[in-house]
Amino acid sequence: MDILYQRGRASASEIHEALPDPPSYSAVRAKLRVLEEKGHVRHEEQSLRYVYLPTVARETARRSALRHMLSTFFEGSVEQAVAALLDVSAANLSEQDLERISSLIEEAKKEGVRS
Question: How far is CA 46 from each of CA 49, 54, 109, rounded to the nearest angstrom?
Answer without folding.
Answer: 5, 16, 51
